């Protein structure tokens, strides 16, 4: 049986060229990049090359890139690190209720430390309005955090407009761009962001590797304590191999970004077409106009999502749901509840996300598998 992976928004397979780029740093150039001898200098050269290339890819300068252990750490360093270092300017933070938990839980921690956090609502399409942010801004607002693209629905937020709004305000602008980088254009200057978090495993790089862009002049309190790596902003020996793999994966993603976007839109449309032709009742969750091309979140009303996912896996189709099984009960996604309330639509959502290695034939097989499973489950059309 062919197994078809349609969960690239969760993690993506590493590109062979990225894996190849990493190998020398495991075997030959294995030195600690902080060491001054030959082996250390070789590792440092690889780290410097990766930092320079990644900075260039997002419109940043070399010293504005901080290597991290992934997107969650980058979000935490941006939010907690900035708020703690700049609390003398104010203690008010603004974010959105559909953010990734790496952002939401960092904000929750700040609340325990005496900060006030405003959580903004979203439309049925999952977008926050510029007017909401403008209304919530105060003199003591020091940070606004709005993700570039939602990890569950693919909905794009108006980050450029938010960045422009905040140019005349003291508040720093942070965006979680973990899902977006490699899928849509990212330029920190066009976006007017001060802090931007990314993770390599979302664009065919290694897991456990990411970076935070921090604009020059933005001060952060460290959240890890140890050595003076990353210009005293992130303690711990850098993952040189991971940085090298991330650099290569990002180069490949950006080189093929436009053609892949067109391909993934074809996949989206074909999957919906197959389901519609079979008379399947479904809803598209998210904003179809402002969305990542590779994420398609569909609700199948009256379907038991756990049973649906299990049966699709038995058919060889790997997809995911925004729901989490806790003690035998399904808890709907906080993103979909924010968009549609706690109802059948929120409880029966499946995320299909496309990426490197997928083919149109696989998408068609997945569509037919969904029809077969729903029929077996006796879900009414």
UniProtKB/TrEMBL annotation:
Domain Aminotransferase class V: start-end pairs: 4-365
Source organism, top-level taxon: Bacteria
Protein name: cysteine desulfurase
Keywords: Iron, Iron-sulfur, Metal-binding, Pyridoxal phosphate, Transferase
Gene3D superfamilies (UniProt xref): 1.10.260.50, Aspartate Aminotransferase, domain 1, Type I PLP-dependent aspartate aminotransferase-like (Major domain)
Organism listed in the record: Alkalicoccus halolimnae
Cofactor: pyridoxal 5'-phosphate
Catalytic activity: (sulfur carrier)-H + L-cysteine = (sulfur carrier)-SH + L-alanine
EC number: 2.8.1.7
Listed GO MF terms: cysteine desulfurase activity; iron-sulfur cluster binding; metal ion binding
Family statement: Belongs to the class-V pyridoxal-phosphate-dependent aminotransferase family. NifS/IscS subfamily.
Enzyme class, broadest EC rank: transferase
């Amino acid at each position: 049986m062919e197994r078809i992976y349609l969960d690239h928004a969760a993690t993506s397979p590493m590109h062979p060229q990225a894996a190849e780029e990493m190998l020398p740093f495991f075997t030959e150039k294995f030195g600690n990049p902080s060491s001054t001898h030959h082996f250390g200098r070789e590792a440092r050269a690889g780290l410097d090359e990766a930092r320079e290339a990644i900075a260039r890819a997002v419109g940043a300068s070399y010293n504005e890139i901080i290597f991290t252990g992934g997107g969650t750490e980058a979000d935490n360093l941006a939010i907690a690190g900035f708020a703690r270092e700049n609390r003398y300017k104010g203690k008010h933070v603004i974010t959105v209720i559909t953010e990734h938990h790496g952002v939401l839980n960092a904000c929750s921690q700040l609340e325990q430390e005496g900060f006030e956090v405003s959580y903004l609502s979203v439309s049925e399409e999952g977008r926050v309005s510029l007017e909401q942010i403008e209304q919530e801004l105060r003199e003591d607002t020091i940070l606004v955090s709005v993700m570039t693209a939602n990890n569950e629905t693919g909905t794009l937020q108006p980050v450029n407009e938010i960045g422009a709004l905040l140019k005349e305000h003291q508040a720093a602008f942070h965006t979680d761009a973990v899902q977006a980088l490699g899928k849509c254009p990212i330029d920190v200057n066009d976006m007017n962001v001060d802090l931007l978090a990314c993770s390599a495993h979302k664009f065919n790089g290694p897991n456990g590797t990411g970076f935070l862009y921090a604009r020059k002049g933005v001060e952060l309190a460290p959240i890890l304590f140890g050595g003076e790596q990353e210009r005293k902003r992130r303690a711990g020996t850098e993952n040189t191999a991971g940085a090298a793999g991330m650099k290569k994966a990002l180069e490949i993603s950006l080189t093929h970004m436009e053609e892949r976007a067109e391909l993934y839109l074809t996949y989206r449309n074909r999957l919906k077409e197959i389901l519609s032709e079979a008379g399947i009742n479904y809803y598209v969750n998210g904003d179809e106009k402002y969305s990542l091309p590779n994420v398609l979140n569909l609700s199948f009303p009256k379907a038991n999502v756990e049973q649906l996912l299990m049966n699709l896996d038995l058919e060889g189709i790997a997809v995911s749901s925004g729901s989490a099984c806790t003690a035998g009960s399904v808890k709907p996604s906080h993103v979909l509840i924010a968009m549609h309330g706690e109802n059948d639509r929120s409880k029966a959502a499946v995320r299909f996300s496309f990426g490197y290695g997928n083919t149109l034939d696989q998408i068609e097989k997945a569509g037919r598998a969904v029809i077969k499973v729903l029929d077996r489950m006796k879900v009414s059309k």
